[in-house]
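STRUCTURE:
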């Protein structure tokens, strides 16, 4: 499956992953679609957590982020689908 298909499938998990798993997906997704973090850190807790997840992927190439996202999906799909 390609990256876009995996993204759609991960959004359709039948049970919601815990926040730490969601943030792993979020950081990789943002790195693929926006590159390195380009905003200021939000003040609210949820926004700050998303920012940190994205920042943790700084310097990762688009292709590497796509591959990591797919691997993450393959790891968690059996649990959350």
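SEQUENCE:
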């Amino acid at each position: 499956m390609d990256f876009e298909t995996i993204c759609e499938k991960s959004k359709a998990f039948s049970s919601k992953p815990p926040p730490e798993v969601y943030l792993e997906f979020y950081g990789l997704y943002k790195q693929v679609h926006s590159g390195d973090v380009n905003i200021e850190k939000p003040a609210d807790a949820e926004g700050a957590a998303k920012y940190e997840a994205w920042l943790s992927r700084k310097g990762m190439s688009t292709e590497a982020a796509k591959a990591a996202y797919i691997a993450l999906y393959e790891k968690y799909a059996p649990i959350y689908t």
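REMARK: The chain has a mean pLDDT of 96.
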